[in-house]
Amino acid sequence: MKILVCISNVPDTTTRIKLSGDQNAIDLSSVQWIINPWDELALTRALELKEASGGSISSVSIIHVGNAGSDATLRKALAIGADDAIRVDAAPADAYAVAHEIAEAIKDKNYDLILCGIESSDYNGSAMGGMLAEFLNMESVSSVSKVEIEGDELKLNREIAGGFEVVSATAPVVVIVQKGIALEPRIPSMRGIMMARKKPLEVVAATGAEALTEFVHYTPPQPKAACKIIDADNPAELVNLLHNEAKII
Amino acid sequence: MNNVLIYTENFDGKFKKSIYEIASYGSEIARQLSGEAIAISLGEVAEEELKSLGNYGISKVLTAAGETFKTLQNRAYTAAIAQAAQQENAGVIIFSASNTAKAIAPRVSVKLKAGMVFAATGLPSNLNPFTVPKKVFHGKAFADVVVNSERKIISLSQNSFGVKEHPAEVTIEALQVEAAAPANTRVTDTQKASGKMLLNDAEIIVSGGRGMKSADNWQPIEELAEILGAATACSRPVSDEGWRPHAEHVGQTGKIVAPNLYFALGISGAIQHLAGVSSSKVIVAINTDKDAPIFQAADYGIVGDVQKVLPQLNEAFRKFKAEN
């Protein structure tokens, strides 16, 4: 079995977002870049499955659409334990274009399991995994919080309102994962970092896939009015304010 | 292509508030386009429930049920919705922002080559070019997104438009779907808590953080939730410690919520937590540290030990509920 994990390169989640002067772009000049948190958990789970498989999972590969600026993030994913990386050399214009590029780059590679994070922490599109599955005409299971392998079948927990469904799937399938899939993302070891330098990072030319959407303007959130502080000895006043002032209860 | 198609997901045969909200939203866009608002419902839903969509401006409901739609099979659902959009000349397709919408909307986007805006925060600000507002970086900025394709897909963020009545005559029509190819995924078991208020449905959420000190101290939180008919939630350290289940974690990497009222109890307000709750209409914080960032995000705050304040607050709410 061959696993592919799709990786997005995003600003660190603690980044304070600054806009460009004309507000037509986000100022990314002093941003720290990281592996998208859900993708990092997906990679961690893929490596756990490979280690427990007794050799039946032959490889965990990663793929990314981006320019050379992403290579540090990809090397980190290799240091965590991915076997090889593919970077499609294009700026990621939108989820549709990214999914199309990935589909083109892997169509002859016969991955059995493709893992994607449920969203990216930058544009919050929740789109790429589902789009990729449709481009590849593969079945997909989304909102997955647990992946196990039993024989030839994947056992997936899919979150639904009020609980979860257990979904059995056979390869090939796209699994779109969320919180719970792995407990903690792995941290690269010193040995991992050394080995990552020698692992293959293949850069492939983009096919020029078209984007359908465009982010044209940004505005900062409205500043919030100051918090009204209520005396700790008088919680009834809070109830009063929620009822008579905020009119929320 | 002036019509608007709305995917009205059902939950055990019923429509939730978020579905009436997207019906209201979709029918408003249809009026702006001088088109018709058409719903598509997949799976078993009683006729009376389908007709309730007429209260929110839907003039036609397409419906398909049967074995194919008993459980969510993404390819089959995608094919049915895409077919309905083509058959009804829908230029705009509306989804909620539910897990199901996350599973299907991106697939429909590819099938129809329709650009998608996920978790939009309001009506299009412009129809030409078609421009839709949404949050990025989990609310740290708002963006205007232009959709350049002929067809457009919008998923609407919950509680960002509201349920608006607009009574219409509604007809119900069966959608004749082609038989789906057999799927290589199947549901083998369903585990569902019954009677519990769900986070994404809740108008009020009571959430506890590290300041609660241990899993054993959750009883007053449960109590407050019960008094107010609220759902319970927690911050990331709490679910990481195993004090509460992961499904209760709200924040950037957990659930994004937007209730009317959010109680942050013993939560300091890390930037990732705020990203998950900042769309709440009113935030109440109780924390010992007066400089905790949660007070920057809160509307009302009490500086004090949550373990001491909460029982008194519960008493005050109980009294209020008895009198009102």
Largest Cβ-defined interface: A-B, 85 and 100 residues
CATH superfamily assignment of the largest domain in chain B? HUPs
Structurally, the number of domains of chain A stands at 1
* Multimerization state: heterodimer
**Beta-strand segment tally of chain A:** 13
Helix content of chain A: 25-40%
Give the N-terminus to C-terminus distance of chain A in angstroms: 55 Å
Strand order of the largest sheet of chain A: 9-8-7-10-6-1-4-5-11
Strands across the major sheet of chain B, in which order?
5-9-4-1-2-3-10
For the record, the CATH class of the largest domain in chain B is Alpha Beta
What's the helix count of chain A?
Answer: 6
Helix content range of the residues of chain B, please? 25-40%
Radius of gyration of chain B: 21 Å
Order of helices and strands of chain B: EHEHEHEHEEEEEEEEHEHEHEHEH
Mean pLDDT of chain B: 95
Weakly predicted, low-confidence segments of chain B: none
The CATH architecture of the largest domain in chain B is 3-Layer(aba) Sandwich
Given helix and strand content, the structural type of chain A is alpha/beta
Description of the structure:
Chain A has a single domain (2-219), classed as HUPs (Rossmann fold), CATH 3.40.50. Helices cover 26% and strands 31% of the residues of chain A. Chain A is built from six helices and 13 strands. The mean pLDDT of chain A is 96. Chain B folds into two domains: 3-174, HUPs (Rossmann fold, 3-Layer(aba) Sandwich); 199-323, Rossmann fold (3-Layer(aba) Sandwich). In chain B, the strands form three sheets. In chain B, strands 5-9-4-1-2-3-10 form a seven-stranded parallel sheet. At the A-B interface, α3, α4, β7, β8 and β9 of A face α3, α4, β5, β7 and β8 of B. β9 of chain A pairs antiparallel with β11 of chain B, so a sheet runs across the interface.
What's the short version?
Chain A is an alpha/beta fold and 249 residues long. In chain A, 26% of the residues lie in helices and 31% in strands. Chain B contains nine helices and 16 strands.
